[in-house]
Design a protein that fits this description.
The complex is a heterodimer.
Chain A: E1 22-23, E2 30-35, E3 70-71, E4 78-79, E5 85-87, E6 90-92, H1 94-102, E7 112-114, H2 116-130, H3 139-152, H4 166-191
Antiparallel strand pairs in A: 1-2, 3-4, 5-6
Helix pairs in contact in A: 2-3, 2-4, 3-4
Chain B: E1 9-17, E2 21-27, E3 31-38, E4 41-48, E5 54-60, H1 62-83, H2 86-109, E6 112-118, E7 123-125, H3 132-150, H4 155-164, E8 167-169, H5 172-180, H6 183-187, H7 190-193, H8 196-213, H9 220-244, H10 251-281, H11 289-298, H12 305-331, E9 347-349
Helix pairs in contact in B: 1-2, 1-12, 8-9, 8-12, 9-10, 9-11, 10-12
Classes of the chains: A alpha+beta, B alpha+beta.
């Protein structure tokens, strides 16, 4: 059953998959509900792995008493049905899966990314707005930091979404302009001009 | 692996959050990607098409509340703009026009909604789909994609599946634990259905009315009444806030409680600042409580544009809070369980004999 997300009473079949707005018969709220076959299909049963029948059979690396069914696509270790984790056609062991996630080599497992291009642009741009009332003095520190970030993280893994290096370029241009400005100011102060 | 980034398509809808946060939805090859980006850090959540059981979008009253609030603020700012002259009226005109523009934009964007995606193990809100038109467009776009993966549910399958009652609550032990804490907490939301929030709303409305009355009447009785009202409101607001921390909580009421406390704090600070100002101007009166009240009663918001602005803000904010508390409490179902967080109680398929 699909409950109404407001009153949690079951929605009538007439209110589902209409492709348009309908009404909850209990609370009268206007809603649109699209239901798919996954609602009615149970989850596939997990496999616990078969026990070894003879000593000649290959055993799982992590469960020596269970029969190996697949090798890990990453490290080659033998895996039983319990250890075998299928991901986009590959068979992985839990260790390689964890390594892939923590090392961010598998983007399909990445759940968090620091986008250094955005950070560099923020470091280059925000102090100009925030510190305008103190003659932009903090930018003498933030501009070099932004430049360092651009060069340090140019090739770092970026967003998994479609992206370009434009933010890095903008941060670099902005920071360089700030540095040029500060150079002129310091030169004028030093020469008494 | 990085080539996967090019397979994502941006879906309509964007929701901005605190500190430059943005919620967006992207369409991947085999999943829906929810992205929350804030200050250069992106967090991802994937909903695979083969797992999606339903997508439900429900209309909410938030848009109407925003429209009402913006209209009230625009009217309130228009009044002194029409009455005053010179530079002060320009300030209020600018404010009125600003809020009018926001009102028009909000009205044009259409009604608001709340969209949930449900799988076998979770029900999550999709924050970027908070406008009904946008949500319907996205649902229309997702429908063929998900149907291509899962197939189509016919009307007969729907009726049969629903009548068979294939779904059960995921955590019966959690339900049992809640029941052991007392049936009142599982059945209703006693903290939000109790009297405290009504009392707070009434006191806020009274404060708004008395504040509006100060523009026309300045009398000691009014000042004493306002002081008593403030004390009563402060006590009620604290009780209201404390009660919101008992489960089950509702995020809307919690926000309203904190807003009320913040309003009282700001009122106290501004009142204290006025008192200090008065002390400097009339030090002789500070030894006599009655004289102090008399002096405060003689202060009118019409004397000073700053005072007028503060008083207007106080009136509008109090009225808004009162209306919001009543609207939010009325929108809560009597038997609603705790739904303060983004995730809601999960369902799991009925055990059909398969291991």
């Amino acid at each position: 059953m699909i409950p109404c997300t407001r009153c949690h009473s079951t929605l009538a079949a007439d209110a589902l998959n209409t492709g348009a707005l309908s009404t909850c018969s209990a609370c009268g709220v206007t809603l649109q509900a699209d239901v798919y076959p996954a609602l009615f299909t149970g989850r596939a049963a997990g496999h616990v792995g078969e026990l070894l029948r003879s000593r000649e059979e290959a055993s799982c690396f992590y469960h020596p008493d269970k029969r190996a069914s697949k090798p890990c696509s990453s490290c080659g270790r033998f895996l039983c049905a319990l250890c075998d984790i299928e991901l986009e056609g590959k068979h992985l062991c839990p260790i390689c899966l964890e390594r892939g996630k923590s090392g961010e080599s598998m983007t399909q497992l990445v759940d968090r990314r620091v986008c250094y291009d955005q950070v560099a642009l923020l470091v280059a741009f925000v102090p100009i707005i925030l510190f305008a009332f103190v003659f932009f003095i903090p930018t003498i520190i933030t501009a070099p930091i932004a430049i360092l970030m651009v060069f340090r993280y140019w090739n770092a893994p970026a967003s998994i979404l479609p992206h370009s290096k434009i933010r890095f370029v903008m941060a670099l241009i902005l920071s360089v302009l700030q540095m040029i400005g500060w150079t002129i100011v310091i030169f004028n102060l030093a020469t008494g001009g | 692996m990085e080539s996967q980034s090019h397979s994502y398509q941006k879906l309509p809808g964007k929701k901005k959050t605190f500190l430059m946060g943005i919620h967006r939805l992207w369409l991947g090859g085999d999943h829906l990607l929810q992205v929350h980006s804030r200050l250069g850090v992106e967090q991802y959540r994937r909903f695979y098409f083969s797992d999606i059981q339903s997508l439900v979008t429900r209309k909410t009253v938030a848009g109407k509340i925003y429209n009402a609030l913006l209209a009230i603020i625009t009217l309130i700012l228009s009044m002194p703009a029409l009455k005053l002259g010179g530079g002060s009226s320009l300030f209020f005109y600018a404010g009125a026009v600003f809020f009018l523009v926001i009102l028009v934009i909000n009205w044009l964007m259409g009604p608001t909604c709340r969209t949930h995606v449900r799988t076998a193990v979770q029900q999550e809100v999709l924050p970027s789909l908070y406008r009904l038109k946008t949500a319907q467009r996205v649902l229309s776009r997702l429908r063929p994609v998900i149907q291509a993966k899962q197939g189509v549910v016919t009307r007969d399958q729907l009726v049969q599946g629903l009548s068979a009652g294939r779904m059960k609550p995921l955590r019966p032990e959690a339900g049992a634990k809640l029941k052991s804490q007392g049936s009142a907490r599982t059945a209703a939301t006693p903290r939000t259905r109790g009297r405290v929030h009504v009392l707070v709303a009434v006191l806020l409305a009274a404060r708004a009315l008395s504040g509006a009355g100060e523009f026309f009447i300045n009398h000691m009785a009014m000042t004493i009444f306002e002081m008593a009202l403030f004390v009563a409101l402060a006590i009620a607001a604290i009780v209201f806030l404390v009660r919101q921390y008992d489960p089950p909580r509702h995020i809307g009421m919690l926000t309203a409680a904190w807003s009320t406390v913040a309003y009282i704090g700001l009122s106290a600070v501004s009142g204290y600042a006025m008192f200090i100002g008065m002390a400097f101007r009339q030090p002789g009166a500070m030894h006599n409580q009655w004289k102090q009240i008399e002096l405060m009663a003689n202060i009118s918001p019409m004397d000073n544009p700053v005072l007028m602005g503060l008083q207007l803000f106080s009136v509008v904010f109090a009225a808004t809070l009162a209306v919001t508390i009543l609207l939010v409490s009325n929108s809560l179902p009597a038997s609603s369980p705790y739904s303060g967080g983004r995730s809601e109680p999960m369902l799991r398929p009925q055990n059909d004999g398969r291991i």
